[in-house]
Structures are given as C-alpha cells and as structure tokens.
Amino acid sequence: MPAKKRHFASAALKKGFIEIREGNHVFYRYQTSNGQIDDRIHTKVSHGGNGDISDSLLAKMTIQMKFDKKEDLMKYIECTFTLEMYRDLLQSKGFLE
C-alpha cells in the first residue's frame, strides 16, 4: 500500500531526520540527539510525481532506515511507531550509543 510523501516527511521531521533538498530529490538524514548527522541512516524521495511513495520505494526505505519490516515503516509514518521506539531500534542494531 503506497504512503503519502507529505505524511512521511511530517513523521521523519518529527522523529530525528533533517531534510535536504537537491534537484528533484529530498534527502532525509538522521540527526542524533546530540546533533550529529549519521549518514548510515538515511533515505530519499522524489518531490515530483503524484504525491505517493510506491511500495517498491517503501521497501528500499525500510532497509535504508534500518527497519526490520515494511509494516514498521508504515507504523512510523502513521505515528504509532514513536521516536523513542525508533531510537531503541537503532540502538539495538548498534547505530546509536
């Protein structure tokens, strides 16, 4: 099931990501609680098109954002997967200290 780009952007910006616009793409880079940018945790979307993120792109974003499954990314976008839960996930995988 596709997701709306605006819903993803809203969730990402509330949950540790910063937005960087370059050309036709919007890059999201994870910013740790101490303000450091962690380039290992990132994703991008095109800001053109119909406003939806396709299932195939969501699958790639799931991997880039270090989620175990696409359903967790969808919960993140829907805001039932909180910032604290996301930080715990990243810490359990060794991305945060």
Characterization of this structure:
The protein has 97 residues and is an alpha+beta fold. It has four helices and five strands. The radius of gyration is 13 Å and the shape is globular. It has one domain: Metal Transport, Frataxin, Chain A, CATH 3.30.920. Helices cover 40% and strands 28% of the residues. A three-stranded antiparallel sheet has the order 2-3-4. The protein has a two-stranded antiparallel ribbon with strand order 1-5. The N and C termini lie far apart (34 Å).
Considering the chains and any ligands shown, give keywords for the structure:
97 residues; alpha+beta; Metal Transport, Frataxin, Chain A; 3-stranded antiparallel β-sheet; two-stranded antiparallel sheet; 4 helices; 5 strands; 28% strand
Question: What can be said about this structure in brief?
Answer:
The protein is an alpha+beta fold and 97 residues long.
